[in-house]
Design a protein that fits this description.
Elements (H helix, E strand, L loop, with lengths): L55 E8 L6 E8 L2 E8 L11 E5 L4 H5 L2 E2 L12
Parallel strand pairs: 3-5
Antiparallel strand pairs: 1-2, 1-4, 2-3
């Protein structure tokens, strides 16, 4: 049994640190006299989400479908009861007659699809 030894392979490329590719120095804000550093403010990303302005609706669980990620709920709007499907992470701790709040989608097409739920899941079955 023979073992082939290759010596024509290129040398392994090594980097000198995690941020070695960054060649720009960091900006430091020193005062003109150089004694006291001025605070440098990073630009803030101001993103407005559509769900931030959406009204919260209290929904009640009607039944648990076979899909382990959906819950069928109902809610009242101006005295009229409507049904919706809510996409939750796991529906094993949700039970009928359980109530929770979530943001109502503003688009009428989004109301036909399962609503996303980003709140905490119940830790115990039926305890909210």
């Amino acid at each position: 049994m023979e073992i082939e030894i290759r010596t024509d392979l290129p040398a392994k490329v090594s980097r000198k640190g995690k941020y070695a590719a960054v060649s720009e120095p960091r900006k430091t804000g020193f005062s003109p006299s150089g004694a006291i550093p001025n605070p440098v403010k990073a630009p803030l990303e101001q993103q407005t989400s559509a769900s931030a302005n959406a009204p919260l609706v209290e929904v009640e669980v009607l039944r648990i479908p076979p899909n382990p990620r959906l819950v069928i709920c109902r809610y009242c709007v101006s005295g009229e009861q409507r049904r919706c499907m809510v996409r939750v992470g796991r529906n094993n701790n949700f039970v009928p007659r359980m109530k929770f709040s979530l943001a109502e989608p503003s688009d009428s097409i989004a109301r036909c699809k399962p609503w996303p739920y980003a709140g905490p899941l119940p830790r115990r079955r039926g305890r909210w």
